[in-house]
Fold this sequence. Notes:
Layout: E1 5-8, H1 18-29, H2 38-45, H3 50-60, H4 67-85, H5 95-103, E2 108-111, H6 116-126, E3 132-136, H7 149-158, E4 169-173, H8 176-184, E5 188-192, E6 206-208, H9 216-224
Helix pairs in contact: 1-4, 3-4
Amino acid sequence: MPLAAVVFDFDGVLADSEPLHLRAFQAALEPHGRHLDKQTYFDRYLGFDDVGAFRAVARDQHWSISDAELSALVSAKSHHFSTLTAAGEALFPGAAECVRRIAAEVPIAIASGALGGEIEALLDATGLRPLFRTIVAAGDTSQSKPAPDPYLEAVARLRPLVTEPKGRFVAIEDSYWGITSAQSAGLRCLGVAQTYPASALTAADAVVASIADVDLALLRRLAVQ
């Protein structure tokens, strides 16, 4: 089969956690008298990891923060996010089934800007963690998306298990930043219109409405184009 491996983004692709991330960011910023509204978050900061998002918020709000303050903000946001996710299921409908059917055929991995502990906790709760060969999370690379580094790292970790060219790897993404990252790393990319409309994902090699619509036949077609 031409399809060599599949690398999933996490937030917005498997986990319907972006609203929870927003609430956690808001809770971390509130003690500092800073506000982050939903529209601004989705328009400006969704593609960043936590460090990048806080730095961007500080820059845009003309707010000078030290490295120690930044670290404290990241820790506070992580605490709030963990509290929110503990309250219930966070995966998109059909996400678990999609992971299982793809993992039964080819190696799978994650390349995400989310914190590793957050990803691990959600996957452990659903029993999916053993299916992923590796997880590249925030802090695992020197640059985050839209730079290619997270996907290059995921491919490197899958070697030598997977020896096929990167063009036979398919990434699954939900944002322009993620699509740019995957394609810059040499992977094919399937967009899922769960966070943004399909019209915002036209840079992807193909687009589907949801993770439940992803099947192996489509991924194999992308891998040989």
